[in-house]
Write a structure and sequence with these properties.
This protein has 138 residues and is an alpha+beta fold. The chain has a single domain, classed as Cytidine Deaminase, domain 2 (3-Layer(aba) Sandwich). The chain has a 4-stranded mixed β-sheet. Bound molecules: tetrahydrodeoxyuridine. Tetrahydrodeoxyuridine binds next to helix 2.
Amino acid sequence: MSSSNIPWQQLRTSALHATTLSYAPYSHVTVGAAAITESGAIVTGSNIENASYGLTLCAECSLVSDLARQGGGRLLAISVVAGDGLPLAPCGRCRQVLFEHGGKSLIVDDGSDHPVRTIGDLLPDAFGPADLDTRSNS
Ligand code: THU
């Protein structure tokens, strides 16, 4: 799979379906995410809220759990939508979580015909795994 032949419609349809699996009794904002890996696997996630509001799991976190459970790999492109089917910008925490598993070149759907926006655009100068190697005191 390469960045030039991303199945955006499939990702958007899968993300919208994932919104139907959300647990969002507090905000009533259902969120679904779907991504494709470099090896062509599709992984999905839904937001899971909590009565202790701050413990809510975003759809992107749920997706990263699915990624691990499917054997891991690198994320190439991701679509995140709300229940209305329109793109939803990943929150700050999720930008960091996604950076870990796709790096700065991970393409984030903006709803256009040919999305080019990346996690590197959304989270410039991100702290990542390489920094742990170079900034450790030991
Ligand atoms: N939410 C996500 O699932 N992903 C984001 O990137 C932004 C917000 C969810 C969390 C919460 O369940 C609801 O949207 C409202 O904040």
